[in-house]
Task: inverse folding
């Protein structure tokens, strides 16, 4: 291999696919589409997503909402993405390998070009990583998760080969490079208002809170899109429902179970459902009373009627949660008994911790479907155990930032992401989305140790222990795993029933109009 340091050569590299003892497995195949027909070129697709107003951005390293991620996916590519089972699959990196202790990784790049004709090379990857890790950068979504990268020792080992050195062993690096906020940008990229990527659509226009337009990029490495043009719009739930039924858009993201029932007999609209696509829950701030006492947090987990929340808020389109993220995903501990409702025990714990008949604020928002409904239903359930819950609704455009400080309880949701990424994003002391304020130095240390384990069976066992600890001591009531519901016009073909944040989600380069 080109440019391998001699010390690394002595230890040897483990191949991505097929090599005995390989650190990570090869690519997983994707699922089937919800519609058929012979693909044809041409036309414009209009897709509408929940918006976040002026906070929407074309900076692919600052993305927060699905509308941002979908737009960025149209314009940019990542080195790695996530397959249907949440394992890493190749994108701009066609293959990768690591040394024996997972401290040095080598990624081999495809022959891809940016929209301005510049050929992708290793320096673009290094520039992108430096931009993500820049401490002066605003809202760098992946900075914490990628903080283990040693940029000073990372290098171009060839025009299309990049070596990424780590400060400590990490067998999960490909999965971390697949998380949101990790797109590869052209070196020198500094102006989000003029994005140039390697993605399937060239940027045409963008207005925050309203719309994005992209045009087909004929030289995309994975093949040109069928569409001439893609428009991604922002709108609230009711407006999305009305638009797709009226034929004003061809795709509406994140629809409600009620909508799914309404359009069952509608020949012009179908619902594409991806089961167990993340989690819905409630966060408790563990750095302040009463939930700085784990027994008070446990009381909340025991008083919740999970089945009722799934039945009403999800319309029955989901499965009951067990206060651990990633049911059905790699590393999920399936052997943990389901937590059942126990109002009497919850009341006893509330009395023990001094929280009985005390009022706590539940800060929620219309930022996501079901948040407000779940908050009010939970408040009723909490009252049965003697916990008084005051529901306060905040603005949707700033909710995920505001909730880090506001409220003792809050609404929580996450799309599909690998379990280690969920932990690093939401449960480490310095995690950017640590809404439960779970800060435990020993937990951080145990997580870093688990990441460093090359043996997958042992790594799985260690991650399971961390999940169990959060379930028993932490501030997360994860009550349900929803089916993800998107609405599609009968004119639109090729839409995958894919979990959000996976490679086949929002793949508008693979859809076509009848």
Result:
């Amino acid at each position: 291999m080109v440019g391998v340091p001699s010390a690394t050569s002595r230890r040897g590299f483990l191949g991505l696919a097929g090599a005995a003892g390989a650190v990570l497995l090869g690519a997983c195949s994707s699922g089937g589409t919800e519609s058929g027909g012979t693909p044809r070129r041409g036309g414009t697709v209009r897709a509408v997503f929940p918006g976040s107003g002026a906070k929407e951005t074309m900076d692919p390293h600052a993305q927060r909402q699905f509308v941002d991620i979908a737009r960025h996916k149209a314009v940019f590519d990542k080195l790695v993405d996530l397959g249907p089972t949440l394992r890493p699959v190749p994108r701009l990196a066609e293959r990768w390998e690591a040394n024996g202790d997972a401290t040095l990784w080598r990624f081999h790049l495809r022959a891809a070009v940016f929209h301005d004709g510049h050929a992708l090379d290793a320096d673009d990857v290094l520039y992108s990583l430096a931009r993500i890790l820049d401490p002066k950068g605003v809202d760098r979504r992946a900075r914490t998760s990628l903080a283990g990268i040693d940029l000073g020792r990372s290098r171009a080992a060839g025009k299309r080969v990049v070596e990424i050195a780590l400060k400590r062993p990490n067998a999960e690096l490909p999965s971390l490079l697949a998380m949101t906020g990790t797109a590869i940008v052209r070196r020198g990229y500094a102006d989000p208002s003029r994005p140039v990527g390697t993605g399937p659509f060239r940027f045409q226009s963008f207005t925050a809170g309203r719309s994005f337009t992209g045009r087909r990029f004929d030289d995309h490495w994975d093949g040109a899109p069928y569409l001439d043009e893609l428009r991604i719009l922002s709108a609230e739930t009711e407006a999305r429902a009305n638009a797709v039924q009226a034929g004003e858009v061809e795709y509406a993201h994140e629809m409600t179970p009620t909508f799914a029932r309404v359009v069952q007999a509608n020949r012009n609209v179908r619902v594409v459902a991806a089961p167990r696509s993340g989690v819905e829950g409630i966060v408790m701030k563990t750095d302040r009373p009463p939930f700085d006492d784990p027994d008070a947090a446990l009381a909340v987990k025991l008083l919740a009627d999970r089945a009722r929340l799934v039945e009403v808020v999800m319309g029955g389109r989901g499965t009951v949660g067990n206060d651990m993220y990633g049911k059905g995903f790699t590393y999920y501990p399936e052997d943990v008994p389901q937590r059942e409702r126990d109002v009497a025990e919850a009341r006893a714990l509330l009395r023990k911790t001094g929280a009985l008949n005390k009022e706590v604020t539940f800060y929620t928002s219309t930022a996501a479907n079901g948040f407000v409904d779940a908050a009010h239903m939970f408040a009723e359930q909490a009252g049965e155990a003697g916990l008084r819950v005051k529901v306060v609704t905040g603005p949707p455009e700033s909710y995920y930032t505001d909730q880090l400080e506001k409220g003792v309880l809050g609404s929580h949701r996450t799309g599909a992401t690998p379990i280690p990424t969920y932990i690093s994003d939401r449960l480490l002391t310095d995690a950017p989305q640590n809404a439960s304020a779970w800060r435990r130095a020993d937990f951080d240390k145990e997580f870093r140790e688990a990441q460093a384990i090359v043996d997958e069976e042992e790594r799985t066992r260690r991650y399971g222990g961390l999940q169990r600890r959060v379930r028993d001591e932490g501030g997360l009531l994860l009550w349900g795993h929803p089916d993800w519901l998107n609405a599609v016009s009968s004119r639109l073909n090729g839409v995958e029933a894919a979990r959000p944040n996976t490679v086949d989600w929002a793949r508008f380069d693979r859809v076509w109009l009848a």
Q: What stands out?
A: Residues 456-473 form the longest helix (18 residues). The chain is about 25% helix and 20% strand.
